[in-house]
Amino acid sequence: MLTGPEAVLASVKTSGKKALLAELASRAAGLYALDERRLFDRLVEREALGSTGVGGGIAIPHGRVATIAAPCGLFARLAQPVAFDAIDERPVDVVFLLMAPEGAGADHLKALARVSRLLRDRSLVDKLRATESAEALYALLVEPIQAQSAA
């Protein structure tokens, strides 16, 4: 889902939820050749249905995008936590943006479940919060995903 360390942002500075979604849409658009405005609108529409802040300082914003062939993602660790309307009302500092193709019903849900499982691992999340470089964050993120794929 992550193409490489370029899909990892190590210290994002942002003023709030909407600004964060705009920053993620901008970065993902550049990385995956997407329409930035359309992606941002999709993320905002999804948030209007209910916050993707899953608790514990973690958010998994997600949306379907017509122009991609397979689920892809972008990971961001924030420099300072931001309010995200999370279910536990804690601010968010660990974010995994997940995008899936328009027609990817089951694949979208599988990818979302995989990311959710990954970020439920408290020791991993603690390591993500303590890691400074995009390359090291990427390594931490792909190791469990590769292990899941091999199982």
Order of helices and strands: EHHEEEEEHHH
By CATH, the superfamily comes out as Mannitol-specific EII, Chain A
Low-confidence stretches: none
What is the general shape?
globular
How many β-strands, per DSSP? 6
Assigned CATH class? Alpha Beta
Query: Which CATH architecture would you pick?
Result: 3-Layer(aba) Sandwich
Give the integer mean of the pLDDT values. Answer: 92
Quickly describe the structure:
With 151 residues, the protein is of the alpha/beta class. 47% of the residues lie in helices and 23% in strands. It has one domain (5-150): Mannitol-specific EII, Chain A (3-Layer(aba) Sandwich).
Describe the structure in your own words.
By secondary structure, the protein is of the alpha/beta class. It has one domain: Mannitol-specific EII, Chain A, CATH 3.40.930.10. It is 47% helix and 23% strand. It is built from five helices and six strands; from the N terminus they run E-H-H-E-E-E-E-E-H-H-H. Strands 1, 2, 3, 4, 5 and 6 form a six-stranded mixed beta sheet that branches. A hairpin with a 2-residue loop joins strand 2 and strand 3. Helix 1 packs across helix 2.
Keywords:
151 residues, alpha/beta, Mannitol-specific EII, Chain A, six-stranded mixed β-sheet, 5 helices, 6 strands, 47% helix
Give the arrangement of secondary structure elements.
Layout: E1 8-12, H1 17-32, H2 36-49, E2 53-55, E3 58-59, E4 62-65, E5 72-82, E6 92-101, H3 105-119, H4 122-130, H5 134-150
Helix pairs in contact: 1-2
